[in-house]
Amino acid sequence: MAAVLVLVERTDGAVRKPTLELLTLARRLGDPVAVVLGASDDATVATLAEYGATDIRVVDAAEIDDYLIVPAAEAVTEVARSVDAAAVLVTSGPDGKEIAGRVAVGLDSGIITDAIDIAAGDGGPVVTQSVFAGTWLADSAVVSGIPVITVRTNSITPQPAPAEPTVTPVEITFSDLARSAKITGRTAKESTGRPDLTDATIVVAGGRGLGSEDAFGKIEQLADALGAAVAASRAATDMGWYGHEFQVGQTGKTVAPQLYLAAGISGAIQHRAGMQGSKTIVAINKDPKAPIFEIADFGVVGDLHTLVPALVDELGKR
Amino acid sequence: MAKPRPVLVGLPSGATPAATATEPEGPHEPMKIAVLVKYVPEPTATWTYADDLTIDRTGVEGRLSELDEYAVEQALQLTEKGLDAEIVYVTMGPAKAIDGLRKALAMGGTSAVHVLDDSLHGSDAMTTSLVLAKAIEKIGDVDLVIAGMASTDAEMSVLPSMIAARLGLPQATFAATIAVDGSTVTIRRDSDTDSREVVASLPAVVSVTDQTGEARYPSFKGIMAGKKKKVETFSLADLGVETAAVGAGAAKSVTRSADVRPPKQAGTVVTDEGEGAAQIADYLVANKLI
After folding, report:
1. CA distance A19 to A40
2. So what's the pLDDT on residue B25?
3. Does the CB of B262 have a partner CB in chain A at under 8 Å?
């Protein structure tokens, strides 16, 4: 069967859920070849095997950590060539998209970003995208070269399919260009202890209606009651009430959880672009005309400052 | 200032390293910043596909992409902070795209280049990156390319890295902050898990996020001055690109079909009269969400 490359993403050494989604999609197209950047370990191999990787290529090179994007792109390009890949799958996100862009140039191949589904077709993968702020669905295909596809997180549910992969270290001869943008400092962000926003099953989001940074405490309490991730609208992050890394919308994250609970978010198109793929949307807003209610499955017109704490109490009783 | 010129990477053999020789002492010359901008459909308009399954740009109002305004702003701020540089805006797009260039020129900057050729219609990211790389090469002696983090229409976020790959230049992308000291550019790139400081020597390609700071509004004086600034038009022939190498016919990725997503069923909206929280909890339980 054809080799389908999957670029593995890990956080603190653990394989991220979006990678399991890629492996699940890759199996529809052929045999998943997982590319691990940095040192591998038993846990990484076990997880990749559980989700069907038949072949694991490990690129453990200092350049990957020391220089931006280019070493990772060169590694993926070289492995894609060496296994004669039928497709390359990468998780959507700033790093993933930029790596994919360079891989496409390196392979002289077409690129499709932000897939929400992939199916095997006669002439190669058929890629479904949600476009125009989620108002259209488009089917696209790469018609020249090795299809390079980035996939939105949470678009599909990962399915295990145990395999017994071979694990092969790969030596890459990096170009000088790969060492041209040096990472000279790195500050780790403090972990919130909550689920990762892009992987979370439930997301609780706060917006302008909160009125203050302090009020985000209510959103956090509700998130913790639900085991959810916290998100914020751009209005809230621009005002400094919550970190930009939690922003959902056109210039932030795109999320598609089982439940998106929005409080004090009017639902401007830029915000909707980042969350309307959510399976269920619940909204709290004091303005009955807020556009968020047009896409909410359940909405309550009211004051979030009383409703959100009341909901936390209510959940405690159930 | 003598400096290595961008070397255009041919297809498909991959990247060629740019020279990174140290700057020799020499007569001072202003730097050249190329800012890549795109004219996009108004985000608030209703977008649709044209018959050829490209985005319909004729039926909707257009504007300079909001995310590119951050790139314009950062270029202007660099010069205002003392960097001696001319700023050249570069766009590829239909005739109307000149409005995007005029908006950028009204904000500030020196001149603009419009890559305009009917055969470009339907070009994919691979072609667009090639054409823009050729345009940057033709402008010549560009020290810094600045782009936005994504377009607000296609939202791919791949052009800056693809252009850097084609030009064989370092990429310092998704910058939340940017500083130039004459021979290097330093940026801060934030992710979910960390914040990285990245240093690259010039010439380099940078993209900036919306975290770099609000873009200015053009002043009346700026608008009047912007109208007089030079906008040069490059055709494909000017860039030495064959028409057969661009457009829908040369696209390596194509949209085969597109459909309006069925509108979401209108949900239930209730007004809180003291029972709102309980009603939400009931809904979550009924739908097995908790």
Report:
1. 15
2. 53
3. no
**Alpha carbons B290 and B284: distance in angstroms, whole number:** 6
| Distance set, CA B262 to CA A295, B122, B168, B224, B241 (Å) | 12, 26, 44, 46, 41
Amino acid at B64: L
pLDDT in tens, A8-39: 999 989 999 999 999 999 999 999 999 999 99
pLDDT the model gives residue B254:
96
Sorted by where each begins, the domain ranges of chain A are 3-179, 202-317
Indicate the residue of A69, A137, A145 with minimum beta-carbon distance to B261: A137
At residue B123's C-alpha, the angle toward residues B10 and B152, to 5°, is 110
- How many residues comprise chain B? 290
Which domain CATH number covers B133?
Answer: 3.40.50.620
Category of A291 on φ-ψ map: left (φ > 0), alpha (ψ -120 to 50) or beta: alpha
ipTM: 0.93
Give the distance from residue A137's alpha carbon to the nearest chain B alpha carbon, in angstroms: 5
Task: Tell me whether residue B14 is in a domain.
Answer: no
**Which pLDDT score, from 0 to 100, does residue B96 have?**
96
A43 vs chain B: nearest CA distance in angstroms?
A: 21
Answer yes or no: is B112 within a domain.
Answer: yes
Statement: the pTM of the whole predicted model exceeds 0.90: yes
**Residue type at position B14:** G
Domain count along chain B: 1
| Percent residues over pLDDT 90 in chain A | 91
- Fold identical between A3-179 and A202-317? yes
Contacts of B194 in chain A (CB under 8 A): 186-189
Q: What is the mean pLDDT of residues A278-294?
A: 96
Q: Confirm if A209 and A285 have CB atoms less than 8 A apart.
A: yes
Residue range of the domain that includes B89: 31-250
- Rounded to the nearest angstrom, the minimum Cα separation between B165 and chain A is 6
CATH code that applies to domain A202-317:
3.40.50.1220
Distance CA A96, CA A27 (A): 20
Q: Is the residue at B9 inside a domain?
A: no
Class of domain A3-179: alpha beta
Banded model confidence at residue B13, pLDDT cuts 50, 70, 90: very low
Provide the chain B residues 179-208 that lie in CB contact (below 8 A) with chain A: 186, 189-201, 204
Residue B96 counted as domain residue: yes
pLDDT band at B27 (very low <50, low <70, confident <90, very high): low
- Angle between helix axes A94-107 and B125-139 (nearest 10 degrees) is 80
Q: How far apart are the first and last CA of chain B?
A: 65
Closest-CA residue to A68 (of A99, A89, A38):
A99
B95 class by beta-carbon count within 10 Å (0-12 exposed, 13-18 middle, 19+ buried):
exposed
- The answer to whether the CB atoms of A300 and B211 lie below 8 A apart is no
For residue B219, the 8-state DSSP code is P
- B12 pLDDT higher than 50: no
Contact A5, A85 (CB under 8 A): yes
- Residues for chain A: how many in total? 318
Within an 8 Å CB–CB cutoff, is residue B285 touching chain A?
Answer: yes
